[in-house]
């Protein structure tokens, strides 16, 4: 069972911050790739958001967020008091434009992908093998 004081404080933070990201590390120094990707998406939309580094209290925060939203992995993005999801969900929403709509901002124009980026983005395509001698 989660610490009730911590749970109450987390619920207050979720309510007080229109956009809140529970992440590993900080926006300036993400400590995991998934957290970094969500930060990059939010920053590309030029959105103000609060961020909480979960690493100092990882297990207690995992227990609290599991009770609050039935989600225990990080990062977790909350918008207007509701869990949006983790990195994969936020990424899908960003690609479709839903994230910008949810946040009430204009979706910035994204530059066209280079051929190399398209190969990297295509999960069916293996990256080229490079052999160094």
Q: How would you portray this structure in words?
A:
It is a single chain. With about 130 residues, the chain is α+β, with helices and mostly antiparallel strands. It is built from six helices and four strands. A four-stranded mixed β-sheet has the order 2-1-3-4. α1 crosses α3 and α2 runs parallel beside α4 (about 85-95). The longest helix has 13 residues, at about 5-15. The protein is globular, with a radius of gyration of 17 Å. The model has no long low-confidence stretch (mean pLDDT about 85).
Got a strand count?
4
Spatial strand arrangement across the major sheet: 2-1-3-4
What fraction, in percent, of the residue positions are helical?
40-55%
Bulk shape: globular
Report the average pLDDT across residues: 87
Q: How is the biggest beta sheet arranged? A: 4 strands, mixed
How large a portion of the residues is in β-strands, by DSSP E?
A: 5-15%
- Helical run tally: 6
| Element order: H for helix, E for strand | HEHEHEEHHH
> CA-to-CA gap between the ends?
56 Å
Radius of gyration: 17 Å
**Unreliable stretches:** none
> What structural category characterises the helix and strand content?
alpha+beta
């Amino acid at each position: 069972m989660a610490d009730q004081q911590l749970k109450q404080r987390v619920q207050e933070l979720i309510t007080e911050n229109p956009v809140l990201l529970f992440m590993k590390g900080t926006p300036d120094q993400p400590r995991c790739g998934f957290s970094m990707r969500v930060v990059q998406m939010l920053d590309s939309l030029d959105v103000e958001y609060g961020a909480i580094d979960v690493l100092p209290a990882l297990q207690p925060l995992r227990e609290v967020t599991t009770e609050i939203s039935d989600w225990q992995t990080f990062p977790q993005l909350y918008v207007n008091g509701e869990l949006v999801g983790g990195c994969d969900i936020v990424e899908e929403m960003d690609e479709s434009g839903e994230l910008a709509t949810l946040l009430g901002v204009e979706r910035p124009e994204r530059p066209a992908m280079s051929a190399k980026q398209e190969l990297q983005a295509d999960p069916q395509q293996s990256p080229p093998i490079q052999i160094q001698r």
